[in-house]
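Input:
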Amino acid sequence: MGPNEIRDKIEQLIPGAVLAYEGDTFDPWAKIDSKHIVDVCRLMHDDPELCFVSMMNLAGVDWPKEKMLQVVYHLYSFEYNLKFVLKVDTPRDDPRIPSVTSVYNFANWQEREVYDLFGIMFEGHPDLRRILLPFDWEGHPLRKDYVTPETYRGVTNKP
Amino acid sequence: MRETDLRSTEGNVLLTSLEAAVGWGRGNSLWPLTFGLACCAIEMMATGMARFDIDRFGSGPFRPSPRQADVMIVSGTVTHQMASRIKRLYDQMSEPKYVISMGSCANSGGPYVDHGYSVLKGVDKIIPVDVYITGCPPRPEALLDGLLTLQKMVKKMGLVRSGRGDRDKYEPVVIQG
Ligand code: SF4
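Output:
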């Protein structure tokens, strides 16, 4: 099964889920409507023809010009040695994406990291706290418009 | 030594000032606190291993408790989150205590000086430093050089020295790594 068939299968079983698709690259990807992402992940994970039981990575991307934040899911199927990438966009001023922790337990810490650094709210996440930065840190540093604070807890941040 | 020689040393008296004796003892048994923060810690560990053998200079026992340690080797990137822990560990060490800042990160923020939002720009912003070692990372020889320099400073320092006040008499030293 190639990437095109995977795309067809998603479209067939979950109509309207795929918003964009690019199959002719090193990592074939499909852009998924955010309200369908959990269903798509469940399908990718459970379908006996796909068996994407492993999530290799979950990362965030900031697109300030498009006013979008994006989450990228790298899935891998041990069964058929397949890789597939899902992307989900969310508006920058109110970033919300359903959490996929119910399908991939791996996503738990990765979603916390993306929340920590990009400020994307993962709805339904069991424990959405900062994971790398201190709990009283303000702002989300990997956003392109982030300004480093002058001080943190009274210690200067200047060289 | 022959038996007669041994007997001839019995009952002898060595004269020295107490300051010199204590300084000699302190300087030759600087026990570091066990912790490493980033890549520089790898070089620190190499310094502790057989090839460089920090034990030759009396600094072999890396102590897991700040109460038993004399010198804190800050080897690596100090993040803001770690800074409060380092300050607390430093406060828990008993006097006299010394600090070696190892590597560019601990000296000034190193590669993260411009864009490291979470990195402290130099450990001397929170604790006083006696010896700075440059380099990214410094070679183990440079750490040994820093340690020996610190030993010389310690041997010269007075019997009673308390915290920052006394330290003003001794300028921090910079070692080229
Ligand atoms: S100074 Fe260089 S080697 Fe040392 S901790 Fe920083 S980046 Fe790593």
